[in-house]
Design brief:
The complex is a heterodimer of chains A (272) and B (285).
Chain A: H1 14-43, H2 53-62, H3 64-98, H4 100-114, H5 122-129, H6 133-157, H7 161-169, H8 174-211, H9 217-226, H10 230-258
Helix pairs in contact in A: 2-10, 3-4, 3-6, 3-8, 3-9, 5-6, 6-8, 8-9, 8-10, 9-10
Chain B: H1 2-12, E1 26-39, E2 42-55, E3 59-63, H2 70-77, E4 85-90, H3 95-100, E5 104-107, H4 119-130, H5 136-149, H6 165-178, E6 183-187, H7 195-212, E7 215-220, H8 223-229, E8 232-237, E9 242-248, H9 263-284
Parallel strand pairs in B: 3-7, 3-8, 5-6, 6-7
Antiparallel strand pairs in B: 1-2, 1-4, 8-9
Classes of the chains: A mainly alpha (272), B alpha/beta (285).
Amino acid sequence: MTADAPALPWYAHPFWRGVYNSLPALGLSAAVLVVWEAVIRLFKVPTFVLPAPTAIIESLIANWRALAFAAQATALEVLFGFVLSAIVGVLVALVIVRFERFGRALYPLIVLFQNVPKVALAPIFILWFGYDLSPKILLIVVIAFFPVAIDMLAGLQSVEPSFVSLMRSVGASKSKIMLRVRIPHSLPHLMAGLKVAITFSVIGAIVGEFAGANQGLGYMIQFASTQLDTPLIFAALLVVSVLGLAFYYVVEYAEHVLVPWAPKFDPIHSAG
Amino acid sequence: MNVIAMNVAAAKTVQPGTASPAAAPAHIAARGLAVDFTVQGRRQRVLNDINIAVPKGSFVSLIGPSGCGKSTLLKAMAGLVTPSEGEMRVAGLSPQEAVKARLIGLVFQEATLLPWKNAIENAAFLLMTADEKMKRSEAFDRAGKMLKMVGLEGSEKKMPSQLSGGMRQRVAIARALALDPEVLLMDEPFGALDAITREEMSECLLDIWERTNKTIVLVTHSIDEAVLLSREVHVMGTGPARIIETLPITVPHPRNEASYADPAFTAAENRLRSLLIESHRRGRK
């Protein structure tokens, strides 16, 4: 590290390059916030309609203890729900590919089920399982397993036929081809599915809490809205977003570590 | 050298479309082979009445227009498609038995390397799949030797994404050779490479063949490649797919760039060209 330090000017350090690269995004965000604040003050918009950014920050600081407690409850639901979605999604994909005939029967049912508006299921789950963790986890699973299953399935099936021929040319069994080639080959696809699933999981948790809960960020948003405490709604939304972002980047980091050969999405250079 | 001389004798006596006289017992032999595929519910004959005999240690090319079934014939040799009629023997065994005995090495147009494994891991991969009991160190040792043979010494630790198309194909060849098969079946292995790289790969393959004396069957579109590499070229035609002529190539060995100027090379090239044009024309009718 220190050996090549003199060769690099300070601004070439990855950290400062990162800061530099995020300058446009930060600048735009700052501009939006400034305009927002200005509009609220200029036109004297009532706080319960749309609070100014400063009011939201104030509420965030004033209620940080309650928000942190709610975030913890929601994070737990997201975590359990996401892990279970991943397991169910992977298993569904494996079963469909491994047991072809059963898969042909199962696949249309899953697609059909996917078209049921899951939000509408929330009250039923509450009815069945009560107000604690399980109905939220179940709701997350029914929402988030689908992208995992579909992407994993695509990964398992997108293996080049020549790979399969090669394996067969040395007498490898179906299970061995699955284990050695198909499953590792599907991992980049699986990670893409997991990234969708983690965002769905956050949505699922919030919806689950809307339908019936006594804690969590979704519960807090609903409670604040009955009190017309709009700044707290926005503060809770902010926490939800940060939580979702944090979860997303954990999954992306896992992808980086587990499947370094996965194609990278670079939003800045993808157009080039 | 002895074996090669014998093969020349065998190649010279081959008659178009018939099995070679038993000068040397054929290493790969098809008799009355036919293959049907079911395409959208309809059975279609992809290969019809194929008779072919590849002597041990020979280098044979299959050439013909697209859709003439040359890849299917290669797959039948590898036991990847099941014949509807006739039979295929590899070293006196059925292709399935030959697969079990690890007699067959395959190379495709795409290198099909596992992107999460480096060059030597890829080269050792099939060997380790074929032989579960083999020690990792032993498999890597063999894979390393094969990488050296294909000219990839020093690139063992590189990932496929860091290798050029030609280098990836060299790894694929090393992977097939690591199995130490008796038969190397190659389906347009250089089809996706640029002209200069193709040239290099052809020489690399010639070198491998001369050193290992394996029986090689090559499916190709390139007349040059077929003439430069082969002892014998089977020209295939469509409608119905079959072998229309078997042409022995008498260009002297060892072959290299200078072989292109050999009169035998030009003669074979011209003959193949006219056969292909004729078969192409007939295919369109």
